[in-house]
Each structure stands twice: as structure tokens, then as C-alpha cells.
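Minutes, project check-in
Item: structure for the 371-residue chain
Input as provided by the requester:
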Amino acid sequence: MPSPSSSVPVITLENVHKKFGTFVAVESASLEIRRGEFFSLLGPSGCGKTTLLRLIAGFEDATSGRVLLDGADVSKVPPYRRNVNTVFQQYALFPHLDVFDNVAFGPRTRRVPEAETKKRVIEMLEVVRLGDFARRRPDQLSGGQRQRVALARALVNLPSALLLDEPLSALDLKLRQAMQLELKRIQREIGITFIFVTHDQEEALTMSDRTAVMSNGRIEQVGTPEEIYLSPATVFVAGFIGAANLIPVRIVSGNDGSAEVEFAGGRRASVPCSYGAGGGQSGVVMVRPERVRVTANPPSGETGHCVVPVTVRDVIFQGPVLRCLMRDDEDDDVIANIDQSERPHGLEPGARLWAVWDPSAARLLASKDPA
């Protein structure tokens, strides 16, 4: 195996396909995971993200395609010979061993000299902030502390990448949120690639340098949290990541990078588009609720804005914002999150108002059911 280079991705998947009988769990997965990045596999239950992690770890064999680790093909290499470690949902700590000996188990199994093992364990316990807990047993620790012991045990062997299969799922909400930040701190401090499986969109956005969003065994999009949130590639990604208005439109014409669309009510606007949209097709305009304004009168002097007449269904108080649930003239849902100070006159259920947003805040996506 060649020595690792900063220019060589830690993990490379080349058209990886995995079938269980006739069921396709992973379809044509190709991606590169960089050295030192926090990379998340995100998607709903059953989308293939854990199967993809197991293919990287070697617990599953690909039906076709290749898995490369540090530039070398490891598709046929067993798990114990791949320089990756995995942290599962169940931490599986040895109950009869204290924290120090749990963490030292890996180096000792690999016959690392005891002086080097002790040095590594002490350093790793300091990284996970458990230096004062070295002689406690797992049953004397909290859930978050046990999770950090499992991390230290996986990291002490200095793997090329650490694979994490929803390790926070058993924690309560506050501890889970605290551990999200703690995991990111640990990853930055030690500089090892983390590959993190989650179905929690907020978790992925909080922790990741980049994320792969998966659906039905396919990778829908890979990008930074900002790219995925602001510029989703598909209707699925737009709807899965945060709240999104997905408004059906008729495409009037398309050109390089944008398309003219017609909304319910007949108003037209030019919106960003990254696919070859053609006139006469249907499409879906995505805009986030926080980018939508609600006005009592149709805007004047704001040429080019997206403007849709709406009927208010409900107004929900959510502390700093009002969540306005509306419908356009085609009975499609439109949601706006507006500041209390920007509440328009007459905002109440049944009112006829206008939803307005800047075209740059929107994105035209291919319809689920193209015309």
C-alpha cells in the first residue's frame, strides 16, 4: 500500500453497487472523501447510508465497483486489515475493564510496546477530556462519557479514517447537541477523517465539512452544508434538508444558468437553474421560508421579483418569528417565516395577501413528474 499523501483522498468509491438478492441497497455510488475532513452520509432510514459505511469498513463486499483507501484498492481486503475503525450505536465497551484498559485494548492487541501504548492512551484521554476518569469502569460513567471512551478506543490506533454509525442516537437531546460540538472539536484537534452516518439534518449541517445526501440507495448530492441548503440539486434534497417551499411552475423559456417561469396567478420571473430547462416543461421552484416576505398589496417598483397571490391558512407564533401557512391559487402550500416587526396589516386566517421573494433566493429544480 502506498504511503498516504495529502493529495490522495482517504476514501474513494468508484461506481460502487451493492445488492442483497434482487434488492439494490447502494446504486452507482462514486465519491471522494478528503484527508482531515468531517464527512457525513445523510438520509432517511433505509436509504443505504449504513450499507455504504459497511462497504467502506469491509463488513460488506461490493457487488461491483471499487473501494480505495489511501489510493489502494481494498475491495477484497478484510475489515481487520483496513486502516479504519468504526464506532457503532452500541459502544460495546468491556465492562470488566476500566477506561484506561478499554482504550489500551487495541494497541495491546497489535503488540504496540507498553510505553508507547501508555503514551497514546494518556494523550487520547486528554483529547476526549477523560484524563481524570482513567480508572473508572464503564458502569461508573454517563452516556456521553461512555461515548467518548468508545471514540478514544477507536482513535488510539491512529486510523486513516474513523467511521461513525449514528453514535449519538441513544443520547438525550441536550447531551446529543453538546456531543455534536464535542465530536467536531475532537475531529479538528486530531485531524483524522471522520465519516459520520446520520438521519438528522441539523446534526449533519452542524458537524460536517461536506455531506452526501442519499435516497433509495443513490447519492443525490454531495456538497458543503451551505451548498446543500441554499442550492439543492433535486426536489428530494430540497425537501429533506430543512423546511422548503416547493412550488410547481410552468417553464416559459430556459437559457444558460436561469429560466423564466410562470407562477400561479400568471406572474413571471427569471430564477437560477442548473439543468437544461426547456420551455413548456413543468418545474419546481424552491425557496426557503425565511426568504419569503408577506405583503398586503402587490409590490410596485420591484421588477423581477417572484410574486404569488396567496390565501392565509394559519399564523403560528414561534417566539422570534411568525410562521405563516398559506396556499396559492393552485392550492399549493407556501410558508413564510417573518419577523414580528415585519407583520403586514391584515395577516390573519382567510386573508388574501402576496408572497414575495428575490429570485436569487430561489432555485428551479426538475419536477418529480416532468411534463
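Outcome recorded: The first strand starts at residue 11 and ends at 20.
No further action items on this chain.
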